[in-house]
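Cast an eye over this sequence plus tokens and explain the fold to me:
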Amino acid sequence: MRVCKPPLSLVLGLALLTGAAQAAPDVYVAYPPDGHRVAADHVILEGSVTPGATLTVSGTPVPTGPDGLFMTWWPLKAGGNVLRLVTRLGGQSAARVLTVTRTVARALPAVRTAIDRASVQPAQPLDFWDAANDSPAERRVPVRFLGSPGGRATFRVAGGPAQPLPEGPAGVYSGAYTLPTGLTLTGAALTVSLTGRDGRTVSAAAPGRLSSAPALARSVTQLPGSVPGLGINAAGTVLTTMNGEALLYPREGMTFRAVGRVGAHLRLRLAPGLGALVTAAQVSPLGFAPPPALSGGGVTAEGEGEGTVLSALPTATSGTPPKSVSTTVSTPALSVRVPLGSARPPFTLEQPDARTLALTLYGSLVAPLTVPAERPPAMAGAEVQAVAPGVTRLTLRLAQAAWGFTAAYDGPDLRLRVRLPPSLNPAQPLLGRVITLDPGHGGTQNGGAGSLRVPEKGLVLPIARRAAELLRAQGATVYLTRTADVTLGLTERGLVAEETASDLLISVHANALPDGRDPRGIRGPEVYFSHPQAQPVAAAILAALRARLPDLGPGAGLKPGADLALTRPTTQPSVLVELAYLTDAGNLRLLHSSAGQERLAQALAQGVADFYAGAAR
């Protein structure tokens, strides 16, 4: 029998096909990154393998979906964890090794007696420039360190008498030093000592030294050009309480009385007994004289018509802010003027509810403030209250819910501007309206990890672009903060909305859980907002997402009181929408599919349309 050999081309072709079929699968780990350190006892291990492949992690089988997706809540032992991921398909395999460290605070042993020198506080230099006028709480210096449990601890300032430091919980010694008002110090050392169960005594100096001298209080002012916009409320300029909580967002020209220093921050006295911290680099000195008192007198109010000419921005397509253009928009508003004279005092402007604004002024008044003698129709009432020495509050009650509010110094006044609801066409409520949509992240900012190999920035962009198309089809002008994969700062995003006089700022994101949170069962939409004026649009968007995409799960819903860069802006209602969870397999697949993205865009646009329709009634 004669055997015929196949042609060489057929042999090569079969070899190529066989090689392709037997190509090794790959494994992609979206999270955690190699070398990750985490305090929790589990980590979300997520990523994908070649569809059809299997996966083991350190020998334990891990389920994979038809698309190769895997998500598992992986336990960690204390210290280093070496995770070996092996994927297999058709006789081929591939491996990847990750190292994840679970950090665990380890208490010092009872013997030999020791102090954790890195734990000793105060950790920063503390200067007191007007201790005589500080309250005891403002002169209180926390002292703390970690050491061997069961010992007796003390501290001394500048070689003075030893003062006890109680222990509690075990191995934690803490107390406080109250600076005497008449004491002068220059870089004085604070030293802690611990006598342990073994009779051994050890000592350590706190990194932060103490200084106190009278008559060094000074006035400082917010640096020119350091405050972006009128209502952005950027985190980079925030004044905090002494505990680090956000207190107020400065405006151009705001003046403060600095009475000390805490590391890189100045300690301010807003009113007697009321202190705050500001980054020293964001203010400039004015001298030692105190700021002038507020002139006070009659507050005035008037309505503003529509058709105001405002600065506007076209769509941003790169990391460079776009050039301004001119636009005319419908902006009915209420303007309120508070007489200050030459003073530029600190203030806060808050919104207890959608129809109320509370202006709190810090500083003494030459004459008391009085409410407006004449009230425009937009104002339902006003009240002035002396809250505390040096603290005055003006409360405005509005006839309608606010659609934005700002405050800025204007000549001898502080001018409050409140945007009022626009006149809407019930048949076409979106006609002529201006909306800013912000696809989250972009460029160098990936956002949440994408286990199916597309990160958050790439998932939300097509959804936001499609939602913009749907809203434009209903007559709205929609600005996108980005239309491509570009890097854009948080402040720049907020400025797009402010400078286009947008009715709404809607930032579009996909959610993910932080370390230490079990992802199982956590899914669905969430809508964040800071101010009550944004609650109606937040509720409308949430309702549309739940109605159109019940398969997402109901989610945690509305999240009022958020402290986020893109919910803090006040010039318009501002919301941040977390469409779904990247850390839930079903949610992620919906975010990743073209059909799911269309449904999400439709729901987002529907929620906005429903909000305007409700406002038009």
User: Anything to note?
Assistant: The helical segments are 8-21, 456-472, 490-499, 535-548, 585-592, 594-616. The chain is about 15% helix and 40% strand. The mean pLDDT is 93. The radius of gyration is 30 Å.
